[in-house]
Amino acid sequence: MGAAIKQRRLAGNLTLAALSEGAGMSSAMLSRVENGMAAASLDSLERLCHALGIGMADLFQEMDQKSGKAQLIKRDEQMEVVRVGTKQGYTYRLLSYDRGPRKIFEPFFVEVNRKAQAWPRFSHPGTEFMYMLQGRLEYRFGDKTYILEPGDALTFSGNVIHGPERMLDERVKFLAIIIYAE
């Protein structure tokens, strides 16, 4: 919280003395708040936000934007996983591992070649997003088919039967991201 207040103060070209005066608190107390050595009361936060010309919601939102998590999985650390299409010659690399209590999304790098033995059909909860990287593929979604080429994106409901209809090139590579409803 203190870092967000200090950042706003500096962005507004305000001195410690000017902001503390505007918020009706001592410079020493404001310095302790900014450096995380003291907690500001709700009343003090309200006065600080007023003096900075922002709402308290803006301050809390700024704090939320500073925290969070990130995950980097290097190419050689990406796990090859078994999915429905694995038996038919598909290769799936999981690009992110969700470690929470429930899956939010699953991103895959999928590679298929013409030697695939069959064209499986899929159905699953959530929404799926596909982005073609290489090759051309005729893809079935319910009773419709789409020709997918590099750079094309297809988004659809996962609970409708879907899957490749036929390969139009020797090798196809695409990203498939399944997003699960909250």
UniProtKB/TrEMBL annotation:
Origin species: Methyloceanibacter superfactus
GO molecular function, one term: DNA binding
Keyword Nucleotide-binding attached: no
InterPro entries noted in UniProt: Cro/C1-type_HTH, Cupin_2, Lambda_DNA-bd_dom_sf, RmlC-like_jellyroll, RmlC_Cupin_sf, TransReg_Diox_bact_type
Keywords for the protein's UniProt record, in alphabetical order: DNA-binding
Upper lineage: Bacteria, Pseudomonadati, Pseudomonadota, Alphaproteobacteria, Hyphomicrobiales
SUPFAM superfamilies documented for this protein: lambda repressor-like DNA-binding domains (SSF47413), RmlC-like cupins (SSF51182)
HTH cro/C1-type domain residues: 5-59
Domain of life of the organism encoding this protein: Bacteria
UniProt keyword Magnesium, yes or no: no
Protein name: XRE family transcriptional regulator
Pfam families: Cupin_2 (PF07883), HTH_3 (PF01381)
GO cellular component, one term: cytosol
